[in-house]
Design goal:
Blueprint (H helix, E strand, L loop, with lengths): L16 H7 L3 H9 L18 H10 L36 H16 L2 E9 L1 H16 L6 H13 L7 E4 L2 E4 L5 E3 L1 E3 L2 E3 L2 E2 L7 H16 L13 E4 L19 E5 L3 E8 L5 E16 L5 H16 L7
Parallel strand pairs: 4-8, 8-9
Antiparallel strand pairs: 1-11, 2-3, 4-7, 5-6, 9-11, 10-11
Length: 324
């Protein structure tokens, strides 16, 4: 990793190197902290060299006791350099101000599109083998209190391959690339009150049952607002699963400062041309789904992304029964 640098005379009353690094967070993070009267130095940072990220401060604010805003806290409709133009409502319209998490999410998404050179690759995957393995094991998992989903297999396939393709499990810091030493996979969860990305830590060290259990646990605690700040920090790769709502595919926005995010389309039965060993072809009903990965072309080339996705696809189509 590149050497850690601090600027002399920029402590602003902060004395330790760790605290100086945290105060050097992005303008977005500093603005959020100012608006909510939060001392950044008190938040554990998951970014480069301990810097506080948007996810860090979001988790801290969401779980902090409700307080009346201080009169000297800055009040503004802009966060960092993000500007949301205003539009005149028409008669009969209903105007609903953004919630705290919606505004932070909006700013973060705009910032991500502005910062990263987004490119996407699409891979169609035959999930027939996964469907068969899942059908066999689902009851056994249920007896252990675990719901075995297609997503668990996808997370497992990604976790197994992120070590082989470290550029996909990375972050950009200035003009340097940070290759993460951990494989921590965030799972985007859509809630009535917004989006949140709880993280499965050390996913590459977990068996399928451990991943399935973690997905169930984090999803339930996200819905009941029982996640801790640590549960949404230190992600290195994100998976979003809109397929449950029915879309064929989508192009997700990268979760900064990560460099890639995988989108899972609807997994359903479709006709597919199969080629036998002797070269004859036939049309069969197969369980198919589309995987889409958006990646940051500043550091991830198309060949890098496609090799990773090809390995994920191959593992899903040839998933070992002994790993279930």
């Amino acid at each position: 990793a590149p050497a850690m640098k601090t600027a002399d005379g920029d402590g602003g009353g902060v004395h330790t190197a760790d605290q100086r690094l945290r105060t050097k967070s992005t303008p977005l993070v500093r603005k959020i902290a100012a608006e909510h009267s939060v001392d950044i130095t008190r938040i554990p940072g998951s970014g480069y060299a301990g810097r506080v990220t948007k996810q860090d401060i979001l988790g801290y604010i969401e779980r902090a006791p409700t307080r009346a805003p201080t009169h000297d806290a800055p009040r503004t409709t802009h966060v960092g350099a993000v500007d949301h133009p205003t539009v005149e409502p028409w008669p009969g319209d209903r105007v609903e101000p953004w919630s705290k998490i919606r505004k932070i999410t909006a700013d973060h998404m705009v910032m991500s599109r502005r910062v990263s050179a987004h490119v996407a690759s699409f891979f169609e995957v035959d999930f027939t083998r996964i469907a068969q393995l899942r059908a066999k094991a689902k009851q056994t998992y249920a007896e252990r209190g675990v719901n075995l989903t297609f997503l668990a297999f996808i997370v497992k396939a990604c976790a197994e391959n992120l070590r082989k393709h470290p550029i996909v499990n990375a972050a950009v810091s200035g003009d340097s690339t940070i290759y993460r030493g951990q494989v921590n996979i965030g799972i985007a969860v859509a809630l009535d009150w917004g989006l949140i990305d709880p993280v499965i830590k050390h996913a590459d060290e977990l068996a399928l049952v451990g991943i399935a259990r973690a997905i169930n646990d984090l999803g339930e605690r996200a819905r009941t607002k029982k996640l801790s700040p640590d549960d949404i920090q230190r992600g290195t790769f994100t998976i979003t699963n809109p397929g449950g709502f029915g879309p064929f595919a989508g192009i997700p926005i990268i979760n900064q400062p990560q460099v890639a995010i995988l989108g899972v389309g609807a997994i359903e039965k479709r006709p597919k041309v199969l080629t036998a060993d002797d070269g004859t072809e036939s049309i069969a009903i197969r369980t198919m789904g589309m995987l889409t990965m958006s990646y940051d072309h500043r550091v991830v080339d198309g060949a890098d992304a496609d090799r990773f996705l090809a390995d994920v696809k191959n593992l899903l189509q040839e998933f070992p029964e002994g790993a279930v």
